[in-house]
Amino acid sequence: MPRLPTPDSNPTLPRPVHSGEQYGALQGRALQGLGQQISGLGAAFDQRAEQKRQEQAKDEVSQISRDLAAARSELAVAFQDLAVNGDPNDPQAIAGFDAKVKERLGQLRARATTDEAKDFAEDQISSASASLYTQSGTLGIEFAGLRRAADYQATEDSLSSAVLSAPDTFWDAQGQLSATLKAQLSPQDALKATPKANATMASAYIEGLIAQDREGQAERELQSGKLDQFLDGDTKGRLLRSAMGAGKAKRDYALGLARLELEDDLGQIALTGDTGAWSRGRVAALGGDNPVDAARLTRKFDEAVAIGSATRSYENASLPDILQDVSSSGEALKTADNFRVAEASYRANTVAAERLFKAYKDDPVAT
Predict the structure, then answer these.
(1) Rounded distance between C-alpha atoms, residue 10 and residue 14, angstroms
(2) pLDDT tens-digit profile of 23-37?
(3) Which of 40, 131, 136 is nearest to 81 (CA)?
(4) What residues have CB less than 8 Å from 317, skipping those under 6 apart?
(5) Dihedrals phi, psi of 186, to nearest 5 degrees
(6) At what angle do helices 170-184 and 115-165 cross, to 10 degrees?
(7) Distance of alpha carbon 175 from alpha carbon 191, whole angstroms
């Protein structure tokens, strides 16, 4: 059997022999591979950094959205308070709210560090600010309108008070009020305010006349139709009733005083029979519009006149004759159909008897 050669335990392998060009190519490939590995690591790092940045941007945008909702809610409450409780005459009211909007919304910028969050914050702040500034601007216009309305109302109150005190200034004051309406209010507001203003001034005119005891003139002014351009039917009717009522109240008061005067004079008429300035017609007029009162007063006057006449008729009568008449009239009272007439006769006789009895005591011989 043939024998195979035994390999050397430490064989010497042949080493490749490279030229310089080949070595350079090998080194280039090695460096290229290293560069590719480094480039891959950089791309992975950049990708991870971008991912983290995007996550941060999302978190910031979410936080800004929540903060914006809270800010809007706070500012909505502040605006509502301003609209309800704000002083229209305070020139800083609207400016103060606008400053609060700027400050509160500006705080949202501190939440943004990423470009996306900054852009989002600016866009949201701009939108919210524009909306709130529009609301405050509208409210500012309303406040300005309220200030003008208050200024006008003060002028109207002053003019109407002047007319109430001096009714004869009405027409001049009415012209001044018309000029004030045009100067202090917008055309639309002036148009709305004119009917009320006219009614206020015309009412002050009529009420001023009534207050000066010129209710007759007030009634004539209303009846003439000259004030119809200023008054509606209901207001005119109310003022007319007021003027007529004032006249009636004054007449009733005068009648009351006259009735008291009559009551005082009736006693003297019954004693002397002298009616003085009184007549049946004047007495009947004291009844006013009430025929029952007129009849009652006339009857009392007639009784007093009858008593006075009877008293005078006894001036030359003897005392026994008078006493006889008194006795007769006293008996007549018991069966008289007209008690008042009988009573008047009895009173006349009694008065006459008393007078004669007094005269007898003073001078029995002459009597």
Answers:
(1) 13
(2) 566 566 656 665 666
(3) 136
(4) 352, 356
(5) -70, 160
(6) 170
(7) 15
CB 214 within 8 A of CB 206: no
Q: How far is CA 148 from CA 118, 136, 144, 159, 273, in A?
A: 44, 18, 6, 17, 74
The pTM of the full predicted model, rounded to 2 decimals, is 0.48
pLDDT tens-digit map of 69-100? 898 888 888 888 888 888 887 878 888 889 99
CB 64 within 8 Å of CB 106? no
Instruction: Give burial (CB, 10 Å; 0-12/13-18/19+) of 178.
Output: middle
Amino acid 190 reads: A
State how far the Cα of 189 lies from the Cα of 149, in Å rounded to an integer.
9
Q: Which DSSP string corresponds to 58-119? A: HHHHHHHHHHHHHHHHHHHHHHHHHHHH--TT-THHHHHHHHHHHHHHHGGGGG--SHHHHH
| Local structure of residue 169 (DSSP, 8 states) | G
Contact partners, residue 214, CB within 8 Å, separation at least 6: 167
